[in-house]
Amino acid sequence: MKYDIAIIGGGIMGSAAAYFLARSGIAGSVCVIEPDPSYEFATTPQGAGGVRQQMSVAENVQMSTFSLGFYKNFENELSDIPDLPDINFTEQGYLFVVTKDGEKTLRRNQALQSSLGVNADLIDYAELRRRFPSVERDDIVLGCHTPDDGWIDPNAGLWGFRRAAEHLGVQYIKAKVTGIDSDSKKVTSLGLDNGQRIEADLFINTAGPWVAPLAEMTGGHLPVVPMCRVQHFWKCAHEIEPLPLVKDESGMFFRPEGDGFAGGRPSFDIEPGFVDDIYSGFFANYFEDTIWPMMAALVPKFEELKLQRSWFGHYAQNTLDGNMIIGRYSPGHDNIITACGFSGHGIMHAPAVGRALSELALTGGYQTIDLSRLEFARVQENQPLPEIGIK
């Protein structure tokens, strides 16, 4: 079968790209190859759903600002789409707290964010305690509060983009890509495990943690690996005031979720790879030994909590610098592009990146946010562009 554009991977990134392509009205025929249409093993539904503008790289701040506005107006943006799921956008803010070691960086980051129009409020420890009295740790010297930030239901966000793309004519194909055919100048077709062969003029690789093996099929090398990330939901025995999503320098975070709290801390000591069991090995007592003490140190009321459940997913971790890679990446092949390696920022940036991929596919360049600094060239030149001071 022949399409104008074929997308490999139908998670939130691939589906956002498909939506913006279809919405343009000039993309022609678009298909998305997705082997797991129920998204049982997908990354997106397991995410925290946070959307924050507290970043240190200007392009990330700009993408967050656009995506935040898109999510806040999701119903209006997709008002012509039937059966649109409610993404439950919760505008409850973000609070990032630092010790003395992180104060200078936090101030610098806040200055950048403010210069880009973000409502980012620096608050000292006394003011932090006044606003959020349950947050109490003596080594905190400064916080940054962005009240316009929030979080979504990530599964609903994924299905919203997918339903919109399908309604606008995108075809989703349940299959796994098992081979990519190319000549010295371009990619020509995809081989699928159902025996089909998909031809296209342009290909987009948005396969998340699975992106690198697909890149190898055309001689590309993307420094993206799966990294297991575990989250937890607990209830607290004490009354706690409405809180934003709270995050500290270690990467630990939590946010209100229904009648309890959801959160965790990325496990930086594990090796890359897919994990299928979090109740043995490294993660067996991770909450009790690591997460709980850290949470209780930040919010003393969490000394009395009851863990309800834990779950896990896999970041598509960019081992170079933790930021996404976008654009061309395959030597000699100008008609395959990617957006990958989000390292936990995929959900919050999906609307902006979906739009950017559509712009690249249709015009060959960025029409809104210039993301050229995040392209593959920095990988080739070993020039990391990491987030500083906030993971």
Based on secondary structure, the structural category is: alpha/beta
Largest sheet: 8 strands, mixed
Report the total helices.
10
Mean pLDDT: 96
Instruction: Estimate the global geometry from the Cα principal axes.
Output: globular
Contiguous low-pLDDT stretches (5 residues minimum) are: none
Q: Could you state the order of secondary-structure elements as H and E?
A: EHEEHHEHEHEEHEEEEHEEEEHEEEHH
**What's the β-strand tally?**
18
Radius of gyration: 21 Å
Distance between the termini: 42 Å
Helix content class: 25-40%
Explain what you see.
By secondary structure, this protein is of the alpha/beta class. Helices cover 27% and strands 26% of the residues. The strands form three sheets. Strands 1, 2, 8, 9, 10, 11, 17 and 18 form an eight-stranded mixed sheet that branches. The chain has an eight-stranded mixed sheet with strand order 5-6-4-13-14-15-12-16, sandwiched between helices. Strands 3-7 form a two-stranded antiparallel ribbon. Strand 9 and strand 10 form a beta hairpin. The longest helix has 18 residues, at 346-363. The termini are far apart. The model has no long low-confidence stretch (mean pLDDT 96).
